[in-house]
Amino acid sequence: MARKTDIAALTQAGLNLIQQALSIYDSDLRLVVVNRRFQEMFALPDRLVAPGTPFADTIRYLVEQGEYGAVADHDAFVQEKVDQALAFEPHYMERIRANGRVISVEGSPLPQGGWVAVYTDITGIKRQEALLRARSEELSEQVLAYTEELARANRTLAATNAALEETSRQLSEMESRTRLTTEMMPAHIARLDPDLRYTFSNRKLASVIPGRPENILGLHAREALGEEAFSRILPFFERALKGEASVTEFNHDPTGRRIRVAFTPDQEEGGGAVRGVYILSMDITEEAQAREALNQTRKRELAAQLTSGLAHDFSNLLTIILGLQARLSRMELPERVRELVAATTGAARRGGVLLERIASVTGRREMHPEPTDLAALFEDLRTLATPSLPAGVRLEMHLSPLPEQVMLDPGALQDMVLNLILNARDAIGAGPGRIAIAVSALRGTWLEITVTDTGPGFSNEALEHALEPFFSTKGGEGSGLGLSMVFDQTKLAGGQIRLDNRPEGGARVTLRLPLRHADAQPAPRLVLLVEDSDEIRESVREMLIALGHQVIEATSAEEALFLAGIGGIGLILSDINLGGEMSGDALLARLRREGATATACLMTSLPPGDRRRADAAFPILQKPFTQGELAAFLARELSA
After folding, report:
1. Rounded Cα distance, 332 and 338, in Å
2. Beta strands at 599-604 and 406-408: parallel, antiparallel or unpaired
3. Which of 93, 167, 447, 471 is the most buried (most CB within 10 A)?
4. Rg of the Cα trace of the chain?
5. pTM score
6. Domain ranges across the chain
7. DSSP 117-146
8. Tens digit of each residue's pLDDT (9 = 90 or more) over 101-119
């Protein structure tokens, strides 16, 4: 089967062989297809037969060349023609051109919008008609001959018009199928010519870059994309014009989107000249967020593997050093030596604190997102942070309208922002000064949190290294783990962090976290809760009741098997470890084999690497959990 490019080339070649001139304009009156005869008939320059050329530009050129005779008001005449074209009414007309030639113009609207027009030079036919009228009485035999010739010409014209109509129909169907296919793609598909103008585009640009126009045919890429995106793709477009295909990704700051763009040269067969560039663009924001979270998790696991053994040995060494220092302190030593012993002991203790902080950074940390009221969270944060601020330093919070409930880890977020507040406090000193926190939703994609202060701002060195572990500008008073912890937690959530200085002075830290709306809570269910610990069972029962569910309880798998026959149970929640011979996962597996249709879930305090947990075939909720974490877990599992 011929490729699409071959079909397009064959179609254009066929149109060029037709003796009539042909033009097709879309619903926005921009040129889609012409044949060579159209350009030759009206002596048009190349720029006016390029796809995307406005209809008005062509009419204005013809008026200026005298095609329509003397026209007093060019603008009014052009506007009249444009208005007639926009009406898309089928029409047939004949007119005498400025050069004396007579043409017929036949136009028809297309089902997809726009119209096709066919122009035929009928000068010879008109001359024959005039000659017949003038000499009909004298040249009756010639009249008959001319009449026969005219009939043959009409038949030829009718056959050509029929072929042209079929070609036009096939072109329309091909264009319609191509348009339908590209519009169904979840991506922006387009072609640009070497002048960076769009010769083809589906209507998906606004879904990739919100706020941009949908209909961009004929527009320059700078106008269609905006300066930010255009500056990012220009180098890759230039490489594509040299025949080099490529793929790039970039962050579009005005919208907060992550965009992937593929560039494919439209090149002649055999590596010939490049006639344009095909571009495929996709919004990969959610993919990038998940990728960042996965990468950070892998980094943490690698860091834990590298440091755990060293930390263990170092901890043992510190224990020995502290023991020896304690023995030295009990001896009769000169005062100077006692001072050295005390200094060494203090250094060893700081080493112990540092080990604890390293463990908090490199240890496994899972995110626990739950439905969170941001206004209440930041009000609690104000209560926590205010007592630690000097009297001359005030804390301001500015919250833009936000969703009532969003999915995030409230503990991690509070830790991050509190860390930034304390850093800002240390930068300001005793004051006076101001720390401001601004929270807003960015285009429904990100939750943006900005912390600014009136301190001296970041140094150039800090801007480059502040997010690295152990970098500190506080000398011996700082561990250098504060901002690296914020960076770690942000990346673990799939977010972004940016450090800079305000133009008016002071530091600014901007966090962007994925904005996830909290799922609607599922309808109340009858829950079979299986837990052998009385205290835990009572706690979980109260959480379930607070979420609107009804609860029946079992202390063992055997008791749960008996209660499972009660009608209407919609959820079974069991601990993995149960008193008795049957575990929780074995209980759920047996109930499923026996035909139980209720949603089945497990809960456990076993670590993620435990074999019993890894072998379980049911969703698992990690203990301990809050009511919010339980609600988020059930909303996800009960709606699956």
Report:
1. 9
2. unpaired
3. 447
4. 38
5. 0.44
6. 4-181, 188-283, 295-349, 370-514, 526-638
7. EEEEE-HHHHHHHHHHHHHTTT-HHHHHHH
8. 888 888 888 777 788 888 8
